[in-house]
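>> received
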Amino acid sequence: MAFTCPHCDSVAFTRSSRQATATLREAYLQCSNLYCGHTFKTLTEIVATLSPSATPNPKVFIRLGGKAAMEVAKDQLPLI
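>> returned
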């Protein structure tokens, strides 16, 4: 995943990262512009399932999004 520096719009490179939780990754980035020198931390999180896993982890809950959520909602509508 590419990030740009919010100050000078140069490319920022990941210097290190770690898996914080099953759905959250923390990364430390550094701007490539030597005159800027900005370093910062990002958080990347899985926020929705678009296509369910064939081998789901029962310890992990990720809400359904997009077409997957619409399919479940359609199946739960009451019949009139």
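>> The first strand starts at residue 3 and ends at 4.
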